[in-house]
Amino acid sequence: MPCLCWYHFSATCADKAMPCLYWYDFFRVNIVLFIQKKIIMTTKQIAQKLVDYCREGEFEKAQKELYSKDVISIEAEASAGFDKETKGLDKIIEKGHKFQSMVEEAHGVTVSDPLISGNSIAFVLDMDMKMKGRNREKMSELCVYHVKDGKIVSEQFYM
User: Fold this and answer.
1) CA-to-CA distance for 10 and 20, rounded, in angstroms?
2) Contact 92, 71 (CB under 8 A)
3) What pLDDT was estimated at residue 10?
4) Nearest CA to 85 among 94, 97, 76?
5) What are phi and psi of 76, to 5 degrees?
6) N or C: fewer beta carbons within 10 Å in the chain?
7) What is the third-level CATH fold of 43-158?
8) Numbered ranges of CATH 3.10.450.50 in the chain
9) Binning pLDDT at 50, 70 and 90, where does residue 158 land?
10) Within 13 Å, how many C-alpha atoms sit on residue 24's CB side?
11) Which residues sit opposite 85 in a β-bridge?
């Protein structure tokens, strides 16, 4: 059986009963590379998706899609009911639920365009809300994220 691959176009494979392994390897490697490129987003793509989700108030959706399972979250300071540092996606989502349960009224969220440098993302998040038992207030924080292997591996907030 003649080999039909480009490398051996006019040659005959050593094992005439099997298709050429060069042809098989070429497609296997290129398909794997194509799939990997589709799965791993760039830092710029992650930044834009993150900002879009935050502008829509879809924080948990952003976390589930864009965060690593081993992500770490660092607050500006520890506060009542919140540690300075939280590790793991499940714990961060739980922290978000706890924060939302403390909100009485949300009047708006504004997110700046992202700044990107290497594998780092930063933007300003402004929130206008009334927390239970408190007066309405405006909060502003700088949010900084680090990306590795197409996922957010850390977030840190500065007041």
Assistant:
1) 12
2) yes
3) 45
4) 76
5) -60, -35
6) C
7) Nuclear Transport Factor 2; Chain: A, (3.10.450)
8) 43-158
9) very high
10) 6
11) 74
Q: pLDDT tens across 45-87, in order?
A: 999 999 999 999 999 999 999 999 999 999 999 887 889 999 9
Q: How many CB atoms lie within 10 A of CB 155?
A: 20
* CB within 8 Å of 107: residues ≥ 6 apart: 128, 129, 130, 136
Residue 58 tokens, joined: 């879809």
> How does DSSP classify residue 112?
P
Q: How many residues does the chain have?
A: 159
**C-alpha Rg value of the chain to the nearest Å:** 24
- pLDDT 10s digits, 5-25: 544 544 455 545 555 555 555
For residues 105 and 57, give the distance between their C-alpha atoms in angstroms, rounded to a whole number: 13
Spatial neighbors of 4 by CB under 8 A, at least 6 apart, are 19, 20, 23
